[in-house]
Amino acid sequence: MSGTARGKTGFSLMRRTLLFACLLIGACSKGPEADLQYIKQARSLGAEWALVNEQASQGKLTETYGASMHEWIRQQLETTSTSLTQPHARYAAEIEALRALPDDAAPADLRAHSDALKQIEDSLESA
Questions:
Q1: pLDDT digit string (tens) for 88-109?
Q2: pLDDT class for 24, splitting at 50, 70, 90?
Q3: Would you list the DSSP string of the chain?
Q4: In the chain, where are the structural domains located?
Q5: What is the pLDDT averaged over residues 14-23?
Q6: Residues 31, 91: contact at Cβ < 8 Å?
Q7: Do 55 and 90 touch, CB atoms closer than 8 A?
Q8: Across 24-28, 80-84, 116-120, least confident range
Q9: At a CB cut-off of 8 Å and minimum separation 6, what does 43 contact?
Q10: Are 45 and 70 in contact (CB under 8 A)?
Q11: What is the distance between the alpha carbons of residues 104 and 54, in angstroms, rounded to a whole number?
């Protein structure tokens, strides 16, 4: 009976070790697929920034609100940018181009970068 218990324990340990190894490999994966969440976030931030600037140009937002939104968007874009596993990829360049725009950038310019990120996002999701 003790031999059976050792066999189950050994198998369970091996299975847990294998599961841990798979999780570790998955967590260490790098590449565009790993960055997809950051690409989506940057695209969304660019679109939100365009909306803020559009509303501000129409006098529908206070200056204080606009400034705080710009600050928040920039902080989020920086976090997104520094989280990328592929900092030299095309999408990283798009995110950096977005970050380089002034706070009062034209909504069309902001949307152009968001649209480019959306195309990259779509191509990664269909791959």
A1: 999 999 999 999 999 999 999 9
A2: very low
A3: -HHHHHHHHHHHHHHHHHHHHHHHHHHT--SHHHHHHHHHHHHHHHHHHHHHHHHHHTT-S-HHHHHHHHHHHHHHHHHHHHH-S-TTSHHHHHHHHHHHS-TT--HHHHHHHHHHHHHHHHHHHH-
A4: 1-29, 31-126
A5: 54
A6: no
A7: no
A8: 24-28
A9: 114, 117, 118, 121
A10: no
A11: 9
**What is the pLDDT, as a whole number, of residue 11?**
55
**Are 88 and 35 a contacting pair, CB within 8 Å?**
no
Q: Which two tokens stand for residue 73?
A: 């968007």
- Enter the tokens of residue 3: 């031999």
> What pLDDT was estimated at residue 127?
81
Q: What is the pLDDT of residue 27?
A: 47
Query: In the predicted model, what is the mean pLDDT of residues 32-41?
Result: 94
Place of tokens 């299975």: 15
